[in-house]
Amino acid sequence: MKIRRIFFFLVLLAFSCEKDDKLAFEYITYLGDTCDGCPNIRITAPKALADSKIDKVVNNAIKEEIIYLLDFNEENDATDIESAVHSFTKGYTDLKHLFVDEPMTWEATITGSISYEDDTVLTIKLESYLFTGGAHGYQTIHYLNFNKTKAIALDGENLFKNTSDFEEYAESKFRKQEGIPEKGDINSTGFMFETGSFYLPQNIGYTQKGIELFYEQYEIASYADGPIVLTFPYPELQKYLAHVPKPK
Protein backbone atom coordinates (compact mmCIF):
# COMPACT_ATOMS: atom_id res chain seq x y z
CA MET A 1 0.00 0.00 0.00
CA LYS A 2 1.34 3.40 -0.95
CA ILE A 3 1.17 6.25 1.53
CA ARG A 4 1.45 9.75 0.15
CA ARG A 5 3.18 12.23 2.40
CA ILE A 6 2.45 15.94 2.09
CA PHE A 7 4.69 18.39 3.94
CA PHE A 8 3.62 21.74 5.41
CA PHE A 9 6.37 23.80 7.03
CA LEU A 10 5.77 26.29 9.80
CA VAL A 11 7.21 29.74 9.17
CA LEU A 12 10.12 30.31 11.54
CA LEU A 13 11.13 33.81 12.60
CA ALA A 14 14.82 33.09 12.27
CA PHE A 15 15.87 36.71 12.42
CA SER A 16 13.86 37.78 15.46
CA CYS A 17 15.87 39.91 17.86
CA GLU A 18 14.33 38.02 20.78
CA LYS A 19 15.28 34.48 21.70
CA ASP A 20 12.71 32.01 20.43
CA ASP A 21 12.58 28.84 22.51
CA LYS A 22 9.80 27.23 20.49
CA LEU A 23 10.43 23.93 18.73
CA ALA A 24 10.44 23.81 14.93
CA PHE A 25 7.80 21.55 13.38
CA GLU A 26 6.71 20.30 10.00
CA TYR A 27 3.28 18.85 9.30
CA ILE A 28 3.10 15.49 7.53
CA THR A 29 -0.08 14.08 6.01
CA TYR A 30 -0.50 10.33 5.55
CA LEU A 31 -3.19 9.27 3.10
CA GLY A 32 -4.65 5.81 2.61
CA ASP A 33 -5.16 4.30 -0.83
CA THR A 34 -7.83 5.92 -2.99
CA CYS A 35 -10.27 3.38 -4.43
CA ASP A 36 -13.93 2.38 -4.24
CA GLY A 37 -13.16 -0.43 -1.83
CA CYS A 38 -10.75 1.41 0.46
CA PRO A 39 -11.39 3.12 3.80
CA ASN A 40 -11.05 6.89 3.90
CA ILE A 41 -7.86 7.66 5.85
CA ARG A 42 -6.22 11.01 6.42
CA ILE A 43 -3.69 11.55 9.20
CA THR A 44 -2.02 14.96 9.59
CA ALA A 45 0.48 15.28 12.41
CA PRO A 46 3.24 17.68 13.48
CA LYS A 47 6.80 16.37 13.58
CA ALA A 48 9.55 18.09 15.55
CA LEU A 49 12.49 18.78 13.23
CA ALA A 50 15.51 18.86 15.54
CA ASP A 51 17.40 15.91 17.01
CA SER A 52 17.27 16.93 20.68
CA LYS A 53 15.88 14.72 23.43
CA ILE A 54 12.63 16.68 23.71
CA ASP A 55 12.08 16.50 19.93
CA LYS A 56 12.45 12.71 20.07
CA VAL A 57 10.13 12.43 23.08
CA VAL A 58 7.46 14.53 21.35
CA ASN A 59 7.68 12.64 18.05
CA ASN A 60 7.54 9.26 19.76
CA ALA A 61 4.51 10.25 21.85
CA ILE A 62 2.63 11.50 18.79
CA LYS A 63 3.47 8.33 16.89
CA GLU A 64 2.38 6.05 19.75
CA GLU A 65 -0.88 7.94 20.25
CA ILE A 66 -1.81 7.72 16.57
CA ILE A 67 -0.98 4.01 16.51
CA TYR A 68 -3.21 3.58 19.58
CA LEU A 69 -6.08 5.47 17.94
CA LEU A 70 -5.90 3.30 14.81
CA ASP A 71 -5.50 0.07 16.80
CA PHE A 72 -8.88 -1.67 16.96
CA ASN A 73 -7.30 -5.14 16.78
CA GLU A 74 -5.20 -6.79 19.50
CA GLU A 75 -3.01 -8.32 16.80
CA ASN A 76 -1.98 -4.91 15.49
CA ASP A 77 1.82 -4.82 15.69
CA ALA A 78 2.28 -1.44 13.98
CA THR A 79 5.56 0.30 14.81
CA ASP A 80 5.00 3.55 12.90
CA ILE A 81 2.18 5.62 11.45
CA GLU A 82 2.52 4.12 7.96
CA SER A 83 2.12 0.56 9.27
CA ALA A 84 -0.78 1.68 11.48
CA VAL A 85 -2.55 3.04 8.39
CA HIS A 86 -1.84 -0.24 6.62
CA SER A 87 -3.22 -2.23 9.59
CA PHE A 88 -6.41 -0.14 9.66
CA THR A 89 -6.87 -0.74 5.92
CA LYS A 90 -6.28 -4.48 6.32
CA GLY A 91 -8.85 -4.65 9.09
CA TYR A 92 -11.40 -3.12 6.76
CA THR A 93 -10.58 -5.34 3.77
CA ASP A 94 -10.58 -8.50 5.92
CA LEU A 95 -14.04 -7.66 7.25
CA LYS A 96 -15.26 -6.72 3.79
CA HIS A 97 -14.27 -10.15 2.49
CA LEU A 98 -16.31 -11.80 5.24
CA PHE A 99 -19.41 -9.71 4.50
CA VAL A 100 -19.23 -9.19 0.75
CA ASP A 101 -22.85 -8.14 0.31
CA GLU A 102 -22.93 -5.71 3.23
CA PRO A 103 -22.47 -1.99 2.50
CA MET A 104 -19.44 -0.94 4.50
CA THR A 105 -17.44 2.27 4.84
CA TRP A 106 -14.67 2.94 7.33
CA GLU A 107 -13.06 6.28 8.06
CA ALA A 108 -10.10 7.47 10.11
CA THR A 109 -9.29 11.17 10.29
CA ILE A 110 -6.70 12.47 12.76
CA THR A 111 -5.44 16.05 12.82
CA GLY A 112 -2.66 17.19 15.12
CA SER A 113 -1.82 20.77 16.05
CA ILE A 114 0.16 22.82 18.56
CA SER A 115 -2.37 23.67 21.27
CA TYR A 116 0.08 25.61 23.45
CA GLU A 117 3.80 26.29 23.76
CA ASP A 118 6.03 28.47 25.91
CA ASP A 119 9.63 28.09 27.10
CA THR A 120 8.71 25.25 29.49
CA VAL A 121 5.50 23.55 28.35
CA LEU A 122 4.34 22.15 25.01
CA THR A 123 0.90 20.66 24.34
CA ILE A 124 -0.06 18.75 21.20
CA LYS A 125 -3.76 18.41 20.40
CA LEU A 126 -4.94 15.40 18.39
CA GLU A 127 -8.50 15.64 17.05
CA SER A 128 -9.79 12.34 15.70
CA TYR A 129 -12.85 10.84 14.06
CA LEU A 130 -13.10 7.08 13.61
CA PHE A 131 -15.90 5.08 12.01
CA THR A 132 -15.70 1.30 11.79
CA GLY A 133 -19.35 0.47 11.37
CA GLY A 134 -22.34 0.73 13.66
CA ALA A 135 -24.80 3.52 14.25
CA HIS A 136 -22.26 6.33 14.42
CA GLY A 137 -18.59 7.19 14.46
CA TYR A 138 -16.49 8.31 17.40
CA GLN A 139 -15.03 11.81 17.59
CA THR A 140 -12.68 12.93 20.34
CA ILE A 141 -9.65 15.00 21.39
CA HIS A 142 -6.45 13.76 22.98
CA TYR A 143 -3.94 16.12 24.60
CA LEU A 144 -0.22 15.31 24.86
CA ASN A 145 1.64 17.52 27.35
CA PHE A 146 5.41 17.87 27.66
CA ASN A 147 7.94 19.55 29.93
CA LYS A 148 10.49 20.86 27.43
CA THR A 149 13.12 21.65 30.08
CA LYS A 150 13.12 18.10 31.49
CA ALA A 151 12.36 16.52 28.08
CA ILE A 152 9.56 14.36 29.45
CA ALA A 153 5.91 13.69 28.71
CA LEU A 154 3.48 14.83 31.42
CA ASP A 155 0.44 12.90 32.55
CA GLY A 156 -2.53 14.66 34.12
CA GLU A 157 -1.25 14.47 37.69
CA ASN A 158 2.10 16.03 36.74
CA LEU A 159 0.33 19.21 35.65
CA PHE A 160 -0.67 20.18 39.18
CA LYS A 161 1.05 20.93 42.47
CA ASN A 162 -1.57 18.89 44.28
CA THR A 163 -4.05 16.95 42.17
CA SER A 164 -6.57 16.54 45.00
CA ASP A 165 -6.71 20.30 45.58
CA PHE A 166 -7.31 20.98 41.90
CA GLU A 167 -9.88 18.20 41.66
CA GLU A 168 -11.86 19.80 44.48
CA TYR A 169 -11.70 23.17 42.73
CA ALA A 170 -12.65 21.63 39.36
CA GLU A 171 -15.64 19.85 40.90
CA SER A 172 -17.07 23.11 42.23
CA LYS A 173 -16.73 24.66 38.76
CA PHE A 174 -18.18 21.55 37.09
CA ARG A 175 -21.24 21.57 39.36
CA LYS A 176 -21.83 25.25 38.64
CA GLN A 177 -21.43 24.84 34.85
CA GLU A 178 -23.69 21.80 34.67
CA GLY A 179 -26.32 22.94 37.18
CA ILE A 180 -25.63 20.23 39.78
CA PRO A 181 -26.53 21.11 43.40
CA GLU A 182 -23.42 21.86 45.44
CA LYS A 183 -24.14 19.18 48.05
CA GLY A 184 -26.10 16.77 45.85
CA ASP A 185 -25.09 13.45 44.28
CA ILE A 186 -22.70 14.15 41.38
CA ASN A 187 -24.88 11.88 39.20
CA SER A 188 -28.20 13.41 40.34
CA THR A 189 -28.79 15.23 37.04
CA GLY A 190 -27.97 12.30 34.76
CA PHE A 191 -24.18 12.09 34.69
CA MET A 192 -22.51 8.69 34.97
CA PHE A 193 -19.38 9.01 37.11
CA GLU A 194 -18.60 5.32 37.70
CA THR A 195 -17.39 5.80 41.27
CA GLY A 196 -20.31 8.02 42.23
CA SER A 197 -17.80 10.79 42.90
CA PHE A 198 -16.30 13.50 40.71
CA TYR A 199 -12.98 12.75 39.00
CA LEU A 200 -10.79 14.46 36.42
CA PRO A 201 -10.93 13.34 32.78
CA GLN A 202 -8.17 11.43 31.04
CA ASN A 203 -7.63 14.32 28.64
CA ILE A 204 -6.31 17.55 30.15
CA GLY A 205 -4.25 20.06 28.17
CA TYR A 206 -2.83 23.55 27.93
CA THR A 207 -4.60 25.80 25.41
CA GLN A 208 -4.33 29.48 24.55
CA LYS A 209 -7.39 30.22 26.71
CA GLY A 210 -6.42 28.13 29.72
CA ILE A 211 -6.33 24.55 30.99
CA GLU A 212 -8.98 22.43 29.27
CA LEU A 213 -10.64 19.39 30.79
CA PHE A 214 -12.13 17.23 28.04
CA TYR A 215 -14.49 14.39 28.98
CA GLU A 216 -14.98 12.08 26.01
CA GLN A 217 -18.37 10.77 24.94
CA TYR A 218 -19.35 7.90 27.28
CA GLU A 219 -16.71 8.93 29.84
CA ILE A 220 -19.22 10.51 32.23
CA ALA A 221 -22.36 10.90 30.10
CA SER A 222 -24.30 9.31 27.25
CA TYR A 223 -23.24 9.54 23.61
CA ALA A 224 -26.15 11.90 22.93
CA ASP A 225 -24.79 14.36 25.49
CA GLY A 226 -21.56 14.67 23.53
CA PRO A 227 -18.21 15.56 25.10
CA ILE A 228 -18.19 17.67 28.27
CA VAL A 229 -15.60 20.48 28.26
CA LEU A 230 -14.40 22.82 31.01
CA THR A 231 -11.82 25.56 30.46
CA PHE A 232 -10.09 27.32 33.35
CA PRO A 233 -8.30 30.64 32.61
CA TYR A 234 -4.69 30.68 33.81
CA PRO A 235 -5.12 33.58 36.28
CA GLU A 236 -7.49 31.32 38.29
CA LEU A 237 -4.92 28.52 38.50
CA GLN A 238 -1.94 30.20 40.15
CA LYS A 239 -2.19 28.01 43.26
CA TYR A 240 -2.87 24.76 41.38
CA LEU A 241 -0.67 24.50 38.28
CA ALA A 242 2.89 23.19 38.47
CA HIS A 243 3.70 25.57 35.63
CA VAL A 244 1.67 28.77 35.19
CA PRO A 245 2.15 30.61 31.87
CA LYS A 246 3.47 34.14 32.17
CA PRO A 247 1.15 36.94 30.97
CA LYS A 248 2.14 38.21 27.50
TrEMBL record:
Residues 40-138 form the Deacetylase PdaC domain. This is DUF3298 domain-containing protein. PROSITE patterns: PROKAR_LIPOPROTEIN. Signal peptide: none annotated. Residues 158-234 form the DUF3298 domain. Pfam families: DUF3298, PdaC. It comes from Maribacter chungangensis. Coiled coil: none annotated. It comes from the Bacteria.
